[in-house]
Amino acid sequence: MDIIELFKYLLSKKSETPDDGGLLDFIAEHLGEGWQAVRVDKEGVKNLFISKRFGEGDHLCFAGHVDVVPAGDGWIFDPYEPVEDEEGFIFARGAQDMKSGVAAFTQAVKEAKDFPGTLSLLLTSDEEGDAHFGTKIVLEYLKEHDMLPDFAVVAEPTCEEKFGDAIKVGRRGSINGYLYIQGKQGHAAYPEKAINPIHQIAPRLPKLAGKELDSGDEFFAPSRFVITDIRSGMQVTNVTPDRLDMMFNVRNNTKTTQKEILDLVENILGDLEYDLRLTQGSYPFMTDTDTKIVKNIDKAIREVTGITPKHSTAGGTSDARFMAPLGIKVIEFGVKNDTIHSVNERTHKDEVIGLYKVFKKLIEEWQ
Prior knowledge:
Layout: H1 3-12, H2 23-31, E1 36-39, E2 47-53, E3 58-65, E4 83-84, E5 89-91, H3 99-110, E6 117-124, H4 135-144, E7 151-154, E8 166-168, E9 170-171, E10 174-182, E11 186-187, H5 197-201, E12 225-232, E13 239-240, E14 243-250, H6 258-269, E15 274-282, E16 285-286, H7 292-305, E17 310-312, H8 320-323, E18 329-332, E19 346-348, H9 349-364
Parallel strand pairs: 3-6, 3-7, 7-18, 8-17
Antiparallel strand pairs: 1-2, 2-6, 4-5, 5-19, 9-16, 10-14, 10-15, 11-13, 12-14
């Protein structure tokens, strides 16, 4: 089975979160003898950690997920029957996010003849969901058993305009905000007898909506206050509402924390009766670009594609957020990211082959 045959096989298995479609058992069997597999399954989520020790040196882990988001309607092909068109694009759910990455590193480690240390795969079926019982609990197991990797590559799609042009060396954090403003219900004809929370917040919204909370830096964009939902009222025209609820998100870099957000809201809404709750979905992290993993992946990408990738922290979150706090030097690299989660998700077979070649070279030339 070559890399494209493997890729198409993975795509043919319906594995919507948290179903793995039988792929974790298949991958363990596909790697063959000499690989030590550990299953850390919980609450219907299936996880696989499989490793092979070649020597005494570094432990390099390739990580990813086999689960995909629901296909949705409007596909030109069956989303679980991969189709390759005459231009070489392969259509199926998960083609970019991220069965391309899983296929590439699975084939690369399977063919590894030597490595100055340990190679491993960490795979989950719960990345696209809540992620409570996926990579996070596998890492807890590995920490408990002194098996944490030194370096990791998460093969999420990272490239922007062409394959090889970007890797992720960090990610912003994600702070979710839940705000409510208390008013006083009344008849719309007697506004002086009511307290309208919509009227209260309306003149203040420009001071919150889209506000940059810091200036960013070389690697991180500014943290921005993004309002995602506002609702109030009873869907009638003659009743002043007694409450307004608003939700927002801040993709924060290392310069902005929950404290800065609390201070901002207090400064703008402090004279109102309000309540604010913040949750931290993930924390920002940055992998030093002078570390071995960044230098080696840069070199492998240049040798395969002729491109020197830029170092980015843009985008959403990934399971790399669970690795960095444990001291694992982690980066992300994968195919282009332009159709993930969309109808007619696709990737070009040349990108999948290229990704496999980069990972193979990374392993062969690790130093």
